[in-house]
């Protein structure tokens, strides 16, 4: 059986997908409480009556008491090698923090949902995809109550920080979008579509483990 999203905890809540996710959760009548882990207080979240901001300077400082008491745990946390500064720093964030978060909630009876990436595979020759795949494998090994992996392609949306290659890709896609008919496996998706997929998965998934690929994100009602 599925579970109502009565209370949710979100990391990566100030990112492109995370912010859209919190906005959608806040509109749900069934959702009574949303905890967002942030490094500093966020002005938008101060205005949301259901949102409680958990301010921590380092997400590795999150503990069992911080994350307990939720029906759903969402991770929208991710970075790039360029922003992180090195492959090791990227690994520490994308694998390390997400793994730590999963470890904290693994004994709770909840639904864990993670924004991963298209092509995530622990045997990938690409470092980015390999880290995402290793993270998925590690989380799946925890045997949680319910797990969802969301694997989007390129994300469309307005980021607070500039990512030059993504900005160029977005502009290129908007130029050729009208020539793409129907669904396309690699078609970029919006942050709102990804967030909506997470909410729908949280509401409707009955399987213990499920992957939502880029086509599923495009077609989510």
From TrEMBL:
Question: Highest taxon of the source?
Answer: Bacteria
Domain named Semialdehyde dehydrogenase NAD-binding: which ranges? 9-85
Q: Which InterPro entries match?
A: NAD(P)-bd_dom_sf, Semialdehyde_DH_NAD-bd
Gene3D superfamilies in the record = NAD(P)-binding Rossmann-like Domain
Known Pfam families for this protein? Semialdhyde_dh
Enumerate the PANTHER family for this protein.
Answer: OXIDOREDUCTASE HTATIP2
Q: What is this protein called?
A: Semialdehyde dehydrogenase NAD-binding domain-containing protein
* Naturally occurring in which organism (per UniProt): Acinetobacter radioresistens SK82
Upper lineage is: Bacteria, Pseudomonadati, Pseudomonadota, Gammaproteobacteria, Moraxellales
């Amino acid at each position: 059986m599925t579970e109502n999203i009565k209370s949710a905890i979100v990391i990566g809540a100030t990112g492109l997908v995370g912010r859209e996710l919190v906005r959608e959760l806040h509109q749900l009548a069934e959702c009574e409480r949303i905890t967002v882990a942030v490094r500093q207080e966020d002005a938008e979240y101060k205005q949301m009556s259901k949102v409680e901001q958990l301010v921590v300077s380092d997400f590795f400082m999150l503990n069992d008491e911080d994350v307990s008491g939720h029906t759903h745990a969402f991770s929208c946390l991710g970075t790039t090698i360029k922003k992180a500064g090195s492959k090791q720093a990227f690994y520490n964030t994308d694998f390390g923090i997400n793994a730590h978060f999963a470890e904290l909630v693994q004994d709770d009876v909840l639904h864990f949902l993670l924004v991963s990436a298209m092509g995530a595979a622990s045997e990938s020759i690409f470092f980015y995809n390999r880290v995402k795949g290793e993270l998925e494998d590690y989380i799946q090994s925890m045997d949680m109550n319910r797990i969802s992996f969301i694997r989007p392609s390129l994300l469309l949306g307005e980021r607070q920080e500039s990512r030059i290659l993504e900005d160029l890709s977005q502009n290129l896609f908007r130029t050729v979008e009208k020539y793409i008919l129907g669904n396309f496996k690699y078609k970029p998706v919006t942050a709102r579509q990804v967030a909506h997929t997470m909410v729908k998965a949280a509401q409707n998934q009955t399987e213990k483990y499920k992957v939502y690929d880029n086509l599923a994100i495009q077609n989510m009602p």
